Task: structure prediction
Amino acid sequence: MIAHPGARLDAGQVGLLFGGCALYLATFGYPRWRMFGTVSRTRLSAAAVVVVSLPVARFVPGLVALSVLAAVVVVLNVVEHVMVRRQPK
Result:
């Protein structure tokens, strides 16, 4: 993708990139559930967005696909930051 940012990613690359990110986000909820007894709805929602965007990523340039993935993760972090800041101290 660095050498040819306008090239489309093949199925394996999309699967690794988006599937790996979705797997990370989804499995991050398990330690939270074990430690606090709650489910991380924000992480599971972000994982669902990544999975839903996976088929589309195959038909756009690699740089666009990576940008979408980065945007999902950035939005997730902003939402979680706001949620933490709003909690009473």
Observations:
- The CA atoms of residues 29 and 84 lie 16 Å apart.
